[in-house]
């Protein structure tokens, strides 16, 4: 990745010098089909005409372009020598005029890493599909530009494509004389321009809305996917959520959708969940479900659809100046995704998922050594790439939820409306948003912003209960703590709930109050005199962002009655708190697994249940003492099998338990059941083994040597699709063989022949919890290889390799020491690379602390 970085200082200097009037981009994609000549990367022609102004005539600057070759460069009619002005990532521009026209004719490379213009060949029918993905800075792989978010401009695209193809871009397109020409966009940033091309399956619909001024807004809707996925494409549900979201945002934002049409493309081998390109949102095609999934999957897809839609205002209409304020789009979109999910769709439990799933991501990220304030210090593009993390998304969204509680929903939404109208098609910083919120709420936002947006770390809140002689609450206080590394104690608006076990055995809330927690200890006066609680739940209703702790009585109550908490959000918050305690080595992993075994079968919320499955598997793999791991794994597998048979026939809970059973299968009898289910020798009433579930069952069988390459080849013949090929690659890499592991390592680390999706699948199969001894030799190889991989491969592949192949299963002081030795001897390595290794090191150290806790603590049950 040498020479491809762009610093914040360089971007600011260029933005102070230049302003952009518009782009005309012409792409010839006819080279996407046909045989590869093997003479180098497959390329396409890209011709860019860029018109811009310079406020210091005679000054110098540069344009961005990453391309194998440049054919011609012209600046203000002067032909420049490409060999002199182009260095592989930048075009030097000297002696600029007040008004300038730059024309660049280049040969750009198709991508196999999901960055730039990605080319995918469908193994099912040989068809070629193209799409672009740019964030934060990969449009320069497709056309010459000024690759930074604050140099916005209108774009006009034209594309020549193979005959029979359809092409989409941000604007409406028409085909004439073999060329697709697209309407000029509004002023937008380079990273949200987009082109999708190929023989995609395309369906249409429309949205209509009467605006407050009496006019009618008409938005053409479209949805597209590969032809091979068309039989599975439930576009009606995609359009339903889309229309519900458009209604919701028009009701609350009072700013009409500004980008004309609204297409949504589900594309193969996508690195992200989705991308908010105005007028043409792109999604990973896994959101088209080939097999049966639970409602949690549909809810997740709806949330992503709404998240990307919120970006049309937060991010596309109004864009941050630089990636420091990435939260101005991602935190808002994450919050608005959940807010609109609950307010506009059938997924009324969206805040439960947010509390249980999204915030778990934030809590982990906020305790890593790489934690950062929501408003981060982004020095360059590599920093920006890594800051699409749990803090920028989920913590930022949690902070916004706290902000809504702090200023009130009406003031918050009115602030958003003023923000859009004041800064439409422009760029903003933190202060621009705070100023409108101060106007609408009447509150001083500076202190709130300092505490919540400009400091890092997560606080923990613990109740202290003092009972009087009459058995009632004499005093209830909330104690706030912070890590030594991030000692900020923040103001929290929280609800405190008191719960008791009823005569019927349920655990129900009988008292609640909202209060402001500030400082190390806050007395909650409103609850004095209440009956003695069995459980005190701080942050009831999940108003703030914090780790919940329990007093001794509350923890004892949960050990016996967790499954009896009647309110699903309260129950989800308790589960989340217990998981955080496990990760913090305050609760032995054996106790958490025991709670899952006893109470998960009673969990009504399917999304929470699936999260519990993931946590239980993680507790087994990372936090269980090595001497107890085999027995704990056997107990989990037995419990999962028991719940599989106990779940309602055909229910989504049955499906969830079947998938979990496959992931934790540990004994020969478990593998025998999985194999018999696959062959049909045994059936579980109501459990339909569709193709996706068959692959789920095959992976543990492959990992434990129960099935061989021949069986996996036969399964691929049943499912000879792009999805089937990824599953097969993962299963092949999972086999317990030295030769298999050596081959997988070579394919990922020593070669760049695999696409991003195949790299990801191979790494996923390579790492198996049951193969620690087999994988041990790769710890030293990892540390020897990662700096070279980071230098030679794209940042996306580098991230896959450095994070995915870290020896996290070699859980010993020796591995920790080897990590520290690499960090000590590579202090000058790329900061983004060091960050990934530091994060992996922290996870390993946390695992060792958890294992020590599990080894020394006595279990609460036999």
Please give a structural write-up.
This protein is α+β, with helices and mostly antiparallel strands and 862 residues long. It is built from 28 helices and 28 strands. The strands form seven sheets. The chain has an eight-stranded mixed β-sheet with strand order 5-4-7-2-1-10-13-12. Strands 15-16-17-19-18 form a five-stranded mixed β-sheet, covered by helices on one side. It has a four-stranded antiparallel β-sheet with strand order 8-9-14-11, with no helix packed on it. A hairpin with a 2-residue loop joins β12 and β13. The chain is globular and about 90 Å long. It starts with 7 loop residues before the first helix and ends in a 6-residue tail after the last helix. The mean pLDDT is 96.
Draw up the topology in text.
Layout: H1 8-17, E1 18-28, E2 43-54, E3 61-64, E4 69-75, E5 78-80, H2 82-85, E6 90-93, E7 99-109, E8 116-121, E9 128-133, E10 155-160, E11 166-169, E12 173-176, E13 179-182, E14 195-198, E15 201-210, E16 216-225, H3 235-253, E17 262-267, E18 274-275, E19 280-284, H4 295-311, E20 319-320, H5 327-344, H6 350-365, H7 381-386, H8 391-407, H9 409-423, E21 427-428, H10 430-441, H11 445-452, E22 460-467, E23 473-481, E24 492-501, E25 507-517, E26 521-523, E27 535-540, E28 547-548, H12 552-561, H13 568-583, H14 589-599, H15 606-623, H16 626-646, H17 652-664, H18 668-679, H19 691-703, H20 709-718, H21 722-734, H22 738-750, H23 756-766, H24 772-775, H25 778-792, H26 795-804, H27 813-825, H28 831-856
Parallel strand pairs: 1-10, 16-17, 17-19, 20-21, 22-28
Antiparallel strand pairs: 1-2, 2-7, 3-6, 4-5, 4-7, 8-9, 9-14, 10-13, 11-14, 12-13, 15-16, 18-19, 22-23, 23-26, 24-25, 24-27
